[in-house]
Amino acid sequence: MEQVTSIVQIKGIRDGLLATFSDAAWEDQHLALITTINEKPAFFQGARLAIDVGNQVLKVNDLVELRDQLSERNVALWAVISESPTTEQTSQLLGLATRISKPRPEEQRQFTDTISSEDTALFIYKTIRSGTRIEYPGNVVIVGDVNPGAEVIAEGNVVVWGRVRGVIHAGVKGNRNAFICALDLSANQLRIADEVSAMLKPQKDPQPEIATINEEGKLQAELWNIG
Fold first, then answer.
1. Average pLDDT of the residues in 14-37
2. Of the candidates 63, 85, 105, which is a domain's last residue?
3. pTM score > 0.70 for this model?
């Protein structure tokens, strides 16, 4: 198995993750990538993945099969970098990008077997309804609302691209540097580490806010500049 996964290397880039391959047949590269993802599913959950396939000549079926297998694992293939005009044309035909931003050295992060909870994120693309409790040993990103009666508990940060009316607890294991942010932060209760907020009232004209623990050690919410 080590020989298979050594074919692929994963690095963090500005737009997500980049997979590069050592010289091998496409079948081996394809297998190495899927095997790597299967071994670390939490790390790849919700990831945007670009692949650099060098001079491999890939047809539509090759990329469609890979894209479908990645989608089944909640990984989105968005770019294919290739020196082959055929592969580049195939990628464009499927609506995939063929250029990416070059990562600066400080933006690169080598994939290893020792991934900390801060490196992982759970992406949820739906509203969290009353009675639902989400717990995750990393960051949680929700594209949707958190309804009254719902709970989201994370060891890392919590980002909600929507309205919060339930309970959010970030930094659950004592991380006082964690934060909570949302487009409408009118939660029943916010908690970061052991600090608890009072119940927040719904706002007439809600604005994006971010909650952190300030220098005085108190939980506070302020405008979240997402521009």
1. 90
2. 105
3. no
